[in-house]
Amino acid sequence: MVTLNGKADGYRGIWYMNQPTGDEYVFKYSGGLGTYCAKHSPLAVYCPAVEKTFFCYGGTTAASHLGYTAADLREGRQLERPRPGFLLHMVSYFDHRHGLVPRPTILLDKGTADAHDNPVLAVDGEGYLWIFSTSHGRSRPSFIHRSLRPYDIDAFRPVAARWQNPGGKSTPVDNFSYLQMATVPGGGFVGCFTRYRDPLHVAQPGWHCLGHPSQPLQSHLRPPPPPGPRRLLRPVGRRPRTSTFSLPPLLLRPGWTGVSATAGYGPLHGAAPGPTFRRR
Fold it and tell me: Model-level pTM?
């Protein structure tokens, strides 16, 4: 992966389709999916200190539409194979004082045409922008970038995050799907995400310690968190190829850094409060 930090000459969202149907509807769904999917959150954050709403999206090049072949549109998984020049992770903002947007920053080329890899944005307490480049399953890596300056989109640097697994081994945080980030008051983030074909533990210290569920449910991918201050977790489920699991709705409160999934309802317990995501 190369961090591009380039500028686009306009706003172009990625076109994507999923599952040709072989009937008059052509695809299960398709279209401009630059802010796909609903389980990616947040895509935009308003920062009152500078009166700007920062946002990210899945962009593309001016000529990418010329690169789709008949086979791509006929076969269900063609757009998920490695291919540069299609899905570009973009960052920009809306300036509420002047009613203007700048030329967006091209952060990276994700190397696929699969809009499931669209990015997620978070802003920390110091105003630095964090871009989390997700992946659709395990076939491609995920990436994390942080802006070089607060409230600025012109340049980002990669962040090499790691987490400690139950056996004590340090593992890179380089794969996450359907990511939902929440900024923790006082510093850090909490991230809820899916890891395909993993053991039941999906997140550990360094992200957020979720523990082991006692009775995982057969279900689908997590819904996004509901609106409301600091409401971070919804009931989720486990299915054979993913590692999400059932938890009741919880509110993050000072001093809570983990959850007892055996008890089901918490309260959160564990280490002293502090950033659950640490930058290097």
Answer: 0.75
